[in-house]
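The authors assume throughout that readers already know how a fold can be written as discrete tokens. For illustration, here is how one protein appears when written out as sequence plus structure tokens:
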Amino acid sequence: MIALDYLPLIAMGGILGLLGQSIRTLIGLRKTVQIAASKESTLSKELDFRRLLIGLFIGLVIGCLSLLLIQQAPDEPLIGNNIVAIIAIGYAGTDATEGLFNIYPPPKTKRQQNSDSIG
């Protein structure tokens, strides 16, 4: 068994993890749209595309790693329970990773924004 045998399997795990994170992203976008509508502001002010892309990448990596942990041999077929588990790990694992490592800087307050523009 060589490492190239695992590449399609790793790619499948990445896609499933990305799917789990995409579900989480869609739920977050719905919430963001509701907040933007209540504040009567534009949606582009509420979205952080860098954070969105980082979250999707984390979901991809978590999906790859989780499939390697779940699937023992590359020639075994993926069963439905494992597919759902990897999607769920992509959903919850990204949330846990973002919360654990706090990878995003806190938003600037108006006072900090004003001091940045003055100085």
User: Anything to note?
Assistant: The longest helix spans residues 7-39. The chain is about 75% helix and 0% strand. Residues 32 and 47 are 8 Å apart (CA to CA). Helices lie at 7-39, 43-46, 49-70, 80-101, 110-118.
